[in-house]
Amino acid sequence: MKVLGLSAVDQTRLLRICILGLISVVAIGSRLYSVLRFESVIHEFDPWFNYRTTKYLVQHGFEKFWNWFDESAWYPLGRVVGGTLYPGIMVTSAAIYNALHALNIPVDIRNVCVFLAPGFSALTAIATYQLGKEVKNETAGLLAAAFMGVAPGYISRSVAGSYDNEGIAIFLLVLTFWLWLRAVRVGSAMSAAVCALSYFYMVSAWGGYVFIINLVPLHVCVLLAMGRFSNRLYVAYSTFYALGTLASMQIPFVGFQPTFTSEHMAALGAFGLIQVVAAAYYVRARVTAVQFRAFVGCAVVLVAALGACVLVVLTMRGAVAPWTGRFYSLWDTAYAKVHIPIIASVSEHQPTAWPNFFFDLNVLIWLFPAGIYFSFRELSDNHVFLILYSVFAAYFAGVMVRLILTLTPIVCVLAGVAVANVFEAYLSRGSSGPGVAQVPRAAVIGAVLFLLCSFQWHSSWITSTAYSSPSVVLASRGPDGSHHIIDDFREAYYWLRRNTEPHERVLSWWDYGYQLAGMADRPTLVDNNTWNNTHIATVGRIMASDEDTAYELARRHDVDYVLVVFGAMLGYSGDDINKFLWMIRIAQGVYPNDVREQDFFNAAGEYAIGDTASKAMRESLLHKLCYYRFGEVMGAQAFDRVRKQRLPSSVSLHNFEEAYTTENWMVRIYRVKSLDNFGRSHHEAAKFDST
Amino acid sequence: MKPNWQAFATLLFAALAFSGTTDAVDGGLINTNAIRTIDLRSLPAVTEQVGVVVQNSHDSKAAKTYSVYIPHAKADRLAKVTVHERKSGAELQVSKMDNEHLGNILPPQPIEYRATLLQPLQPGEKISLNIDSVYLNTVEPRPKVVEQTGDQTWLWKDDACILSAYPINKEKTVVRTNGEIKAYSQIKESSKDGKSVTFGPFINGPSPNGPVEVRFRDNREQLEALTHRREYFVSHWANDLNILEHYALRNRAPALEAFDKVKQTMSRFMKARDNFVKTLLVKVPADARDMYVVDEIGNVSTSAVTRRQRLDGDAFKVMQLKPRYPLAGQWNYTWWHGYSVPLSNYLRVNHNRHALRVPFIGSIVGSASQKEEIPLTAINTHNTAVNAYELRITLPEGATNVDVRVPFDVDSIRQLPQSYYFDSSGRTVVVIEHANVAPSAVDTHVLVTYDYSVLSLWQKPLVIAIVVFALFALTSLCSRMQLGLAAAKPATTATKKTQ
Fold this sequence. Notes:
Chain A is mainly α and about 700 residues long.
């Protein structure tokens, strides 16, 4: 039957394009809650760094960006920005920005950055469709795309304003995997080269590329072990590995890592292995069975000896990099807590709790095993890959909360496969019968549809309630249900930006470093790029020391302002007093003689802040800066709303003076006093002034 | 002896040329009496009115012009000079002179403005003139630093003698302020009367000679816009005039001795005064819509807009902008805000000729009031001085023969080409720059006339349609081309699965 003059095949194609278009609209639309609820603003912490570097790229051009040495970060050390970041996201935004400006559309770079992740989520949905189509059929592809578009596990990292590497990297991850499976199927060097290009883009965008460069070789090895060597596999992997590795080394931050670090060794090994296997296949085709056996024996001994020698030499020369801490914490969840407090102090590095899986994936978590089952039933090369991906992604997602992100695509694809199988069984055209016989079919289809609708509903709800807060701007509801914006962070940052000198240095805990650089535009001592543990420990030590020691240290580090975040007025629990134990722990790791964690607990072993607090706590700089004169507005009987403890009755402060405190006291900024004109200590000067 | 006519002619021409270039001040005039009134009641603008009685004491020559000198020290703060004939109230035409050197005055030399008299002043005749000049930001806070809730004391300082191009027989200076006089220069001829101080009359200058000063209290807000840029975007399609205003503002009050949050909270609670400017009031037309307030790091969500108001027959709305932080003395704040109004209220069309008449500048008022609702009358207190002003009017694509009229002299008017939103041929932007905008400029308008044909209106949709059509045609062509050598295989799903 012809509709609009189109044949049935064309009709389906048009329908598919329409559905994909609608999925894209839903994917983008559901990520705009944050803009509707709040505004078009960059979220959280790392996005502020990405935004700032993107602005720099747009203003100064690519060459300057590549060679950018940022002297305002990590004062006085500075940071080689061009060589210590993944430039993919910045280059993408700048390209979009320049393209729009070439069309005379005067778009603001901030809006490009804010809407980049939602835009790419539509592309992710399309890539997921292709992946689903590759492993099963168009139905599975469309279902997978629909799941991917709204899965909260992915939305959590790609709402409008969440301008982070993951925003484009998930698209590239799915795209690379699809292109890889396609390359294995087609077996042409061309398609493998396209896959390598996509891999290069991925490397430029996110450190998670390591997942690809381990999973693909694993796929190859497993296929070899299953005796599924083929020329197609050989061509695909050899082309992909050679081109992909060379391309990835062009990113300065990656550099020569693919040649010596442990994370990349699996790929190199698989590359060697497939050459050997290919050689073996080649030889076997030309010699007798006996000769071949002898040949294999010799070759195995030779290769093993050679490999061992190379490994020993490399290890002795120190060329093989030691395993990094973050890598260890992937295997042993308790490792970080004991050895590297700075990794453990980040909440997204914590192990995942079970409810999180359900929260982020909802019904997909049940459809996922069904999809794995269907993959096993029809075990093609593609399905081997899917199974490997699901096993590893599921493990890593269990270890670290934020890796649910890499699990989400495979869950969506397998759920799509599962539902597509259900539809296939219950909607096939051949099984039309009398009316009564249709009832079970209708019931099953109805139930599945209900499940899918409830998933959509759940996703929207989660997105709007849990994942759309910029965390720079907070919101509260009044008793009458009115929406009230709490904007203390920007108030403080903008005050710094407009009313201090551009060269004046601001000391704060590293969490606020990127925001200070982005919004206040002032030099900071430490920031979210936690590359120098000693420097962070020094800041922790300043916060934990008594006023005089802190003053001396602060002056020695040329600090002009100290910024603390204090939630006692509003009950904002993510404040510096609650983070204080991590500061102390990190400082203790470097300065064990100066800072001791147990000093900050009182005799009863409590983490108290009021008059019952330990001496070290009461005298510490952070405690003083937070509670200085706070009791005077809250009254004598007042409580700290976060700690639910009585406030300290008196806090003295002489070496620092209040420069600004925001409306709700959430951010307090202090000026480091300059030396007294008469050479007295500030305590003596204060005593003299008061008499 | 035959006169050397040639040499004589040369000499004559030289003399003529010389008199033409030096353009000397009309000699022979005398100010028989001069009274200068300095009004410090609407700071940061300082209004000086000099009333002079001018006599032509020349034997024979009638005077056609009267020169006004602006002291060099105040020249870059000058916003406006006007000269009126006192009896008739008629305004004289005033033009700025760029004389290389002025008579016998030692550098730094004053700036000369020259007023053309309505009728030449015949020898022996007298005429009374009023010279009004407006200066911005000439009054400074002293002491420079005060407590958060302390009084603001200001210092006015100037020469006791009036600078004039002509001799002055008798003169007097009266300084009027709005607050208590804290101190003033004790010279022989000075006296205080309530809120005003009089220096003079002098016959031969004050004793001791030199500058005089007045220190007075004035707790009202004073702000200065270091830069202010107002932009108009004209859209005929949407019948929309979009207005965007960029400000870099500073509170002129004395700086804070120390920031004290406790005291700030307390004075807010007690509704007591302090020196923080908390609200900025912007008057917008009553039919303004789509208002927003943004700064470099995002929305300023603490702003509000009043309902339609009416004051002295003038209907308007008031945007109450709350800066992210209250502005203490010498603190800066930068932001921009915008809104849209229907274009038809500002545009007159006569065939292809379009006339756009828009306000030259918008007003902004800072308020330190602790109240949530600021009284409506506050909107007409001009307490913000604009130091550097830029007005940009972006005309629609296709507007030609652009003509700009401003009712007073401005520093520069330019027309720049610019491209926005899919423009193919670009559009004209009128850029007007002016330093030190006088408060009276708020009520003036700029008239921009231009030709704009119906065809220009359809230019953009046509261009876009053609581009889209071309893209379709191109893709259509590409999909019909066979790029490979072999004939394309029909797509089948059979080859897809790996076996």
